[in-house]
Amino acid sequence: MPTATAVAHPNIALCKYWGKRDRALNLPATPSLSLTLAPYATRTTVTWGADADEARLNGRIADGKEARRIFANLDLLDPHRPPCVVTSANNFPTAAGLASSSSGFAALVLAANAASGASRTIEELAVLARRGSGSATRSLFGGWAEWPMGARADGADSHGVPLAPADHWDVRMLVAVLQAGPKGTSSTDGMVHTQETSPYYPVWTEQAPADVVEARAAVLRRDIEALGAVMERSAMRMHASMLAADPPLCYWRAGTLAAVDAVKALRASGTGAWYTMDAGPNVKVLCAAADEEAVHAAIAAVSERVERLAPGGPARVE
Ligand code: DP6
Asked: How far is 114 from 163, CA to CA, in rounded Å?
């Protein structure tokens, strides 16, 4: 049976995607900008043709909802596809706000495309990855990527695009791991709840595009202070929109704010470091490569574990 394996790195958004302008097509209500990060990676093998659909994630058989999401994505590649076997493993904790769905669907789409023998453009693959999980559309690209909202009703122009390759800028992203277990509310549910109940949501979507314009310029001129300022603002405004939901949604734990305070104290003492948080309690800290050790020492003091990440390459078929 035709089989192919693909590897993709997760990405962390510096300007966040939070909200959907079309749920069925998974079109975003905000543009976003991200950094793809190594050595974290998802490795996925797809066998195109089997007795029955089966998905094995990190060694266990995927349950109903998880499996449906995977096979629904393969149905988009080919509605008449044969049953498939998907085997996928992450070298990092799944579903802890560490963007595992971003690398997961990027690797899935790439492996399935290769196994099926189809030839699609990278844009077509990025649209398919978006349908699986929005953030995955950015993980097909290495380094710095953007996901413009797009204008078309069918979503064909809403997909990840490269901004600058991994070697454009020698930065680090350190993750203060505060809780490695699975998160309580999925990003999909969290953003839909925010959209439906938060009075701050319209303001969030209104101001988000300007952040991407500013962040893009900062990345291109390698201005980490400017990028850090936009990055923190985008994260806090996204979290503000969910704090104002009804009932309120808060992914933070006490340790989250302790890590944020540690980053701010470090900056006050002259070391450049900037934070962001996603749909989980962990804090991700951006800094210049030269400041990695200082940042590590500061956040290690307030977290369970610290992961060191650096710009990673594009998703690839092995
Ligand atoms: C906070 O891409 O997981 O990480 O499209 O519903 O699968 P779905 O959502 P997902 O949301 C990511 C949200 C975020 C911000 C970001 O990555 O831009």
From this structure: 25
pLDDT at residue 261, rounded to an integer? 98
Q: Is the peptide bond before 39 cis (omega within 30 degrees of 0)?
A: yes
Question: In whole angstroms, what separates CA 63 from the centre of its chain?
Answer: 22
- Mutation pick for ligand 1 pocket among 11, 15, 16, 17 (CB with most ligand atoms within 8 Å): 17
- Give the C-alpha distances (Å, rounded to integers) separating 148 from 8, 11, 99, 195, 259: 21, 16, 19, 19, 31
Q: For residue range 155-205, what is the model confidence (pLDDT) as tens digits? A: 999 999 999 999 999 999 999 998 766 668 999 999 999 999 999 999 999
Among 36, 130, 187, 283, say which to mutate for ligand 1: greatest number of ligand atoms within 8 Å of CB.
187
Residues in CB range of 7: below 8 A, 6 or more apart: 41, 42, 43, 44, 107, 315, 316, 318
- Which residues are near ligand 1 (CB < 6 Å)? 13, 16-18, 26, 32, 99, 101, 133-135, 187-188, 278-279
Residue 95: the pLDDT is: 47
Whole-angstrom distance, CA of residue 206 vs CA of residue 93? 33
How confident is the model over 288-298, as a mean pLDDT? 98
Considering the domain delimited by 171-311, tell me its CATH architecture.
2-Layer Sandwich (3.30)
CATH of domain 3-167: 3.30.230.10
The model's pTM: 0.96
Q: List residues bridging with 3 in a β-sheet.
A: 47
How much of the chain, in percent, has pLDDT values that exceed 70?
97
Decide: 191 and 20 in contact? Cβ < 8 Å: yes
C-alpha 199 to ligand 1 mean position (Å):
20
**Where along the chain do its domains lie?**
3-167, 171-311
